[in-house]
Structure formats: structure tokens, C-alpha cells
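Record format v2
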Amino acid sequence: MATNTKKRYGFVIDVSRCIDCRACLVSCKVENSVPEDHTRIWVRDLGVEGEFPNLKQTFVPYNCMHCEEPPCVDVCTSGATYKDPENGLIQIDQEACIGCGLCLPACPYNVRYLNPETGKADKCNGCIQRVEQGLQPACVQTCVGDARTFGDLNDLNSDVSIALKNAKSVQRLATDDVDTGPNIYYINGDVMQASLLPREPSYASAETFWRKVAVPAVVAGVGLSFLGQAVFFAKQLVDGEKDFEE
Amino acid sequence: MSHEYIPLSLRKKLFNKEIKKHNLANILTHWFNVLSWLLLLPTGLGILASPRLGLVPEVWLDATRQMFGGTANLIKFHYSVGLLWMFVLTFNIFIGFRKYFVSFAGERMLLDKDDIEWLKVKPLQMMGLLKGKTLPPQDAYNAGQKAYSYVVILGTFFIGLTGVIMTFSKYIPWKWLVQWSLPVHFSAVGAVFAGVIIHIYMGAAFPEERSAFFSMFTGKVNALYARLHHYKWYQRKLQEEDDWEERVLAEGRELRTKEHAAEAAGD
């Protein structure tokens, strides 16, 4: 997928190394002050597969995919959600978020939630506050099985590029119908399960009404009104004014 | 405009006579509204960056953000001015200038039979039809102004209500309410603004309403304008003047009678 950002930060996740310890969930919560009952990060369990004694179970670490074509950015009312032009991470300017929540159903991966303490949308920010200090994101730093790697996918010598190069298999959670260019690459395991694949972005009925009814109606109304007064104004300029007619 | 014949000498005389139409409360509230709209409309549009909506040009989004130093400040400014606008309006209408606004709504806004007729004839005349037909006499506000006043009042109510909901969205437990506030806020602004364009043109540029424009500064219109455009109101004003004179004269006569009586008693 084509990218317009200088760097392209993303995750490469080796599913064969994840043991579902969920240390990443804890470190993420602590690092980012995620409120109780909410999380920015998950480990999905694909369940036990195969016939005894040939059994396997795959755990899939999961968070914001920092998409190349993010529907959440497109739908954000105020522009608070944006794709960082430097590094490609999808960020939320917390102070600019108006808390309307239109972005929540728009995300095909359901990674967003409304923070009840701030009233704003929240999700994985790639621990940019750590990355800027030269550190790894909390989930990567704490991963006991080294399942998670993070870095610049545009840089051929980065950890992520090297992990991709050495991978036995590479998958991204995208389908023919929904491909928003996710920047999490899953290696060394099969994650293409219906329960993990993205759904079509969905939009609140208020947003649909706004876009399809309110905007055209207001544009037409204001346009007609402006045109009407322009005609009368032109007529007035041509006709001139007469005293004592008021 | 009335088709009544008024000789030029009378026109000139009426033109120089002033009649009070607006009190200070209305004038101050009007210009406070103007200031609020000038600050709120450009900043409100500046906030609407959603590419899906694709409404506001990039150049305006950038300009407003740079002017205020980022999206967050732009939104804070819009919220603050909006809250101040709503506070002052609510205070003026229901507390401070209550006696003006309540009587205003009672006396000047209701549509009567003449108004309905006016609404039927005027739009056709504006399109060049029914030129010969005389418009029914109008009160202090003509039927068009009255009709628009409902749009403004309803619109302002919904702008304020949805604005407050969005400003305090954190405390609203129903997300759908915050989400529906967006298009309702937008549509209400659109409805009022479509009328504001006409309102500004009529008030500031349209020659027949010139007197109305200056009345928003002085509170007064000239009698010729009043007679031609607001005949019923004009007649009432004349009646008020007559009544006043009548009352003063009556008081004078009474005083004189008392004086005479006193003199007679003194003799």
C-alpha cells in the first residue's frame, strides 16, 4: 500500500510467540492511564483447533491498526483524529476532540472507546510519548515472549522490517471488501479468522442525516437566499434610487 | 409599499418627523447578537474539518486554526463565546429586559388576517406578478418579518440547546443526543443564516427599508416610512399622540376649573 508519511510506524506481531499472559494489557493501562473497564489493547483467543493429540491454540494481540486510509479520520467532526504526517500513527488530539463518538462505529476494528473520565475518544497512540524518548511502546517493552515488535516499516533496517523479512508467513487483517491499509503485520501463524477480520465502517444515523440531508438543504437554502438578494441588489443598482418613496 | 397617494409636500413633512420604534433594550440585544454571530459563524465553520462532510474549504480550516493556535483553542473560543451569547440572551429576555421582550412577543409577533393576505400577495409580487394588487396594511413588523422571527426564535433556541449539549457532552449519558446535536445545530444555523442574508440586504442596502436600518442605531424611523410600510402601527402611534394630547388638555382644563373655583371661593 502506498504511504505518504515519512516514517511508517507499525507493529509486527509474531503470533507463534504470544502466550496470552496479557502483560501488555497491564503495561498499556498503566502507561496510558486507561480507566477501569476499558482497554486500548486486547489478546484475542482463536480457540483450540485440531484433533487430539495434534492441538494448537493461537492468541492474537490486537490494537489500533494505524491504518493508511483510516475511516475514523474521515468521519472526525473537528479534525481531532489525524494521521501524523511524520510517522503515520493515528492520533487523537484530546483537547480538540468534542466527544461526539462518531469515530467509534467508523473503526472497522472496534479499537476506540469513549473515556468516561475525559468524555473524549481514546485508543492506542503507539505510546508516542515513549517512542519520542527513544523507548519502545509499553506493550512491546513488556512482552515476555517477544511477540511484539514496533518500528518504522519504511526503514529496511528496523526491527519490524527485519522481522517481516525473516517471517515464515505474513498476514494483515484486511479483506477484499474492507482494506483500510492496516499497519499491524501478523507473522508465523494464521489469523485470517472471521472473528478478527474487519467489518465495514458504520456511521451513526445522525452523521448520515447531517451529510445527506442537512448539508445539501442548508447549502441550497443559503445559496438561494444569497442569489435572491443578489438579483434584487443588481436590480436596485440598475434602477437607481428615488427620494421620498421610501 | 402602499399605493396610497401622498403629495410631495406631505411626504417631505412626514420624512422629517421621527417616531420611536425600538427601545434601547432591543437595540443593544440586536447588536450583541450581531457581534456574537460574527464571532461564532466563522469559528463554527472552522471547526467542521470532517472530510466526509467535505463542507468547509481547507483554506478556511487552516486559517481559523492558525488564527487561534490550533483546533483545541478554536473550539474553546467557540464554546466560550457561545455560552456567553446564550447567557446574555437568556438573561436579557427573561430577566433584564423582560418587560420589553414579553410585550414585544405579545404585540408584534402574532399574525393577523392582513398578515396572511400579505404572505399570499407579496411573494407573487416579488416575482413580478399581481403588480396592481394593494398590499394589506401592516403592523410594526410586516408578515414576512413576523414569519422570519419564528425561524430566528426557534433557530436560536435549538442552536443554544444543542450548543450547550455539545459543550458539556462529557456529562451527557446519551451519545445519540450529542450526535444528533451536530446536524440540528448545523441546520438551525443554516436556517437562520439563510434569512440573515435577506435581513442584511433588506436592512442595509434595500432603499425602501433605509429608515429601518438607521432605526437600529437611533431607535427611530421617519413617519413617511412608517405610514407607507407599517400603516396600522403608524395609525396607532398617531392615536397615542392624540390620546396624550387629549389627556394633557383634560388635565389642564380640570386644573383651570379648580383654580376658578378657588378664586370664586376667595371672593
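Chain A touches chain B through 47 residues (CB under 8 Å).
The radius of gyration of chain A is 25 Å.
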